[in-house]
Amino acid sequence: MNDFKYIEQELWCEQTPVRAVAQKVGTPFYLYSHQTLKNHFHVFDQAFAEVPHIVCFAAKSNSNIAILRIFVAAGGGVDIVSGGELYRALQAGVEPRKVVYSGVGKRIDEIEYALNAGILMFNVESFQELAEIHACAQRLGKRAGIALRVNPDVDPQTHPYISTGLKENKFGVNIKKSIEAYRAAQKMPWLDIKGVSCHIGSQVTKISPFVDALDRLKKLIRLLRKEGIDIRYLDLGGGLGITYREEEPPHPVEYAKAIIGAAKGMDCTLVLEPGRVIVGNAGILVTKVLYTKTNEGKNFVIVDAGMNDLIRPSLYNSYHQIQPVIKKKGKTQQADIVGPICESGDYLAKERQLPEFERGELVAVMSAGAYGFTMSSNYNSRPRVSEVLVKGRRSYVIRRREGYADIVRGEKIPKFLKT
Ligand code: LLP
């Protein structure tokens, strides 16, 4: 369910015509529905209502501080993977005790920042990181809450770039070796062992990989408890998929039911780190047709958004629906929707049956709320686009479009080059 719909041939976001926002802010821009974001978070959170839990929204999927604020205001926490994401989460007013910190390469300054902020726990991904966190905690005189991120070796059956829980991936500690890591942690007085965590992958469209992972975690928790290691938090990561095209992922309620059932009797607070399922279908990218042309019988629609604005199609060959902002009658044709970047891989959609777009028409790239803006860059020295939040009849610019000065901000010409 989302709040993007056609009313008399025109695409609306809630009670606001998309065209009106384009007139106000120019193109391209990301557009999010406040109602959809709030709803998605609420449905997910409520699905776990019967058990102690924290929904830590995965900031990497969409880290705009206004968007984080929506979830924080609804009682959510944040899953972070860097000092920058912690900064954003704090700007959004998160309670530090609802922040979990994952990532294979945490730097010392980032660890210290998180310790000083007082986060709930670090999801530790290696033996060396464990020792480093302990050393930082000792230095600062602050005990560090930790969970080991274990690699449960389950196949999430998703794209290889975003599958993270197989034993050959760089993530986490092998589940068999993790006992040793917990034993080591137990000997470190500045560590407070709080939990076990895992994350098996993203855009997962079946329930069974999550339940398999949970079963493995349960076995581990039992073993740890036998050794007197108290586990209070069970962090299952994120990963629930969404419909981009024809996928039929489980509804969050169904997902929660399976997890609550499988976690019964464990007496742990559940931590969930959803990203895509909350924001993916709550946002679109709006772009304008610059030119159309035909090369060797192939039709190209050249738009003003490129792979620097939305890299998912180029990077993962992922599918995003393309919709006209204003529907018109007439013929359709097969075409590629491409951007202005100097790379053949710069496309938003390939070989699609689409209306015969004309110059100046507005095009919506659907399901772009997750890993859209957060993965955008200034490649080809293109200013990053603006982000707009719609609430009912009103729209709010939650990130202004960059200008040329933003692009060179921080750069300097050394004196010897100035003469
Ligand atoms: N927790 C951890 C530790 C993660 O690594 C991730 C995503 C999440 C939670 C959130 O997963 P989600 O619920 O959004 O599936 N850029 C890729 C996705 C990369 C996902 C990385 N980790 C894409 O555009 O599809």
What does this entry show, briefly?
With 419 residues, this protein is of the alpha/beta class. 29% of the residues lie in helices and 26% in strands. Strands 4, 14, 15, 16, 17, 18, 19, 20 and 21 form a 9-stranded mixed sheet that branches.
Topology:
Elements: E1 4-7, E2 10-13, E3 16-17, H1 18-25, E4 29-33, H2 34-47, E5 53-58, H3 65-73, E6 77-80, H4 83-91, E7 99-101, H5 108-117, E8 121-124, H6 127-140, E9 144-151, E10 173-174, H7 175-186, E11 191-197, H8 208-226, E12 233-235, H9 252-262, E13 269-272, H10 276-279, E14 283-295, E15 298-303, H11 312-316, E16 322-324, E17 332-338, E18 347-355, E19 362-365, E20 386-391, E21 394-399, H12 404-408
Question: How would you sum up this structure, described in words?
Answer:
The chain is of the alpha/beta class and 419 residues long. It has 2 domains: 4-31 and 281-407, Lyase, Ornithine Decarboxylase, Chain A, domain 1 (Beta Barrel); 34-279, Alpha-Beta Barrel (TIM Barrel). The chain contains 12 helices and 21 strands. It has helices spanning 18-25, 34-47, 65-73, 83-91, 108-117, 127-140, 175-186, 208-226, 252-262, 276-279, 312-316, 404-408; strands at 4-7, 10-13, 16-17, 29-33, 53-58, 77-80, 99-101, 121-124, 144-151, 173-174, 191-197, 233-235, 269-272, 283-295, 298-303, 322-324, 332-338, 347-355, 362-365, 386-391, 394-399. β8, α6 and β9 form a beta-alpha-beta unit. The radius of gyration is 23 Å and the shape is globular. The mean pLDDT is 96. Bound molecules: ligand LLP. Ligand LLP is lined by residues 58, 60-61, 79, 102, 162, 164, 199, 202-203, 237-240, 273-277, 312, 316, 370-371.
